[in-house]
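Trying the structure run again after the queue cleared.
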Amino acid sequence: ASTERAAAKRRPVAAEGVAGRENTSTTSASSARLAHHKRFGPARGSVRGCWGAHRGNMDANDNSLFPIAVLIDELKNEDITLRLNSFRRLGTIALALGKERTRAELIPYLSDSNDDEDEILEVLAEELGKFVPYVGGAEFAHCLLVPLEPLAVVEETAVREKAVESLCTVGESMPESALSEHFWPLIQRLATGEWFTSRVSACSLFKVCYARMPAATKEQMRTLYSSLARDETPMVRRSAAQQLGKFAAVVEPEVLTSDVLELFQHITKDEQDSVRLLAVDNFATIGKLLSPDDCVAKVLPIVASFSQDKSWRVRYMVALQLYEVCECVSAEVVREDMLPAYVRLLRDIEAEVRIAGVGKVSKFCQLVGAEASVQHILPCIKDLASDGSQHVRAALANVIMGLAPVLGKTLTIDQLLPLFLALLKDEFPDVRLNIISKLDQVNQVIGIDLLSQSLLPAIVELAEDRHWRVRLAIIEYIPQVAAQLGHEFFDERLSDLCMGWLGDSVFAIREAATVNLKKLAEEFGKEWAVEHIIPQVVKGLQHNHYLFRLTILFAISMLAPVVGSEITVSTMLPVVVSASKDRVPNIKFNVAIIFEKMLPILSAQVVEQTVKPCLMELHEDTDCDVRFFAGQALNACEQIIAAA
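Done. Tokens:
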């Protein structure tokens, strides 16, 4: 009685929702179960006794089934954690019961379950979608519709979505006869339900069975879907708009060009911007299903008008989808009809719309060609490079490099290079980072010589940027620049810069600098490393701060495998041995770690005569960490010596 009174109190709220309140809560899990019980009858009081009898039989006949009996009992446990675990293992219970008893006992039990925890209901909805094999296959899949139907009506969105997903899975496995007898009546009940939640769920089910229904039923389905798209409740219209593209993909071509397009045009005129913006998602889907002529005549005019919609959210969605729509028609049509709309979006008053439009600029320029890009799009890009929103400039910096291959060398030098330099000096670090990370695209077009003359000074300046992430991006780009410039240019302009990073105040920079030295040594060869890197690295161990001395040890461990055994023994191993006498324990136990890393490239004689005595001394150190790592390294030494 209390449940009925609660449901009665909620009904006026549902009426307000029908009047157009999108955010009004109109139903609940308990009201959905109440409606279900009214239709399917009261809960079966004998179900729990049935489970108890089965458990007794299990205990008497086969102790191996006792865990299943425990899971069954936990379906009603007061502890939600235990119930949740049991519901997640419904498949195990069904497998133990067998197909017939699952259909006859477990499914009715789940249908009559009065659990009101949304988390439990979500798991139940998900598990039921996997139950087709457990109930006997496609022939008996329709019995799963009974417990899933009330779950598709509950208030909690996550539960409804899982229930709809499972209904789609079950429906796809059902034979045509069962679809007509069970699935289509289910859609009708949901689509004409009192609560808007049932009608929202119904919109997602049409695509499952439409293609396999008789012609007369198909006409009824189209009529019913059309009524949902014109529903008084905005949430239902939103769901219909969201699913229209998937429904259009399964209808006949003649229906697509008549009924579906008419419905699509009606949705695009909806007074609610939340409905219109979901309709935008269907532009590309429907455009690809139509012929190019129909797309130009019936879809592109709507796209053009939506680019001027009063709602910025709709314009934002158009900016995201415009390129996909343009792929459905020829480049000539895009230049004539869609280019003005795209330019409007790039100049939109809302920063979010401009960001969405900028994200597609390189793809759009490829579509319309270099000439149209220079004439119409490039002026917008120049304005966006000095946009008042830092996020717009960052979005532009992320894609502007992609214009270089489209415009070619001459136009890139004349038109884009000044923009690159301006963005490299932007005050917002993300803008500078995005430009740096895409420099290779420009390099492929204008060549490394011109790049080094124009952009390298800015890169060198950014190497000392106050934001460490910018410095990190520069470090990661240096090996690529070095490979293009050659070691002579590198020695002259960038060598000191790379060595200076080893003394940076940020550990991530120092660590990246050691990796950078390794890549440079691999690129230019070990002879170059011996002449230009190793002498400067060795000097670093004289630094007063132990963190910088530690970085030098990391650099040595990186370089040793690259330069080989002979150079390591003659130039770097003595330095590591001397570092073992450092006063800082962190230095000493890292010496032990580095010795262990060096062992694969050292001979057994060097290990026994040089490394092992040093480790023996460290093993007697007063610091426990030093002793621990020295012990590990000594064990590795013993293995090397024994193998020799």
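The chain has a mean pLDDT of 82. Worth checking whether this holds up in the mutant runs.
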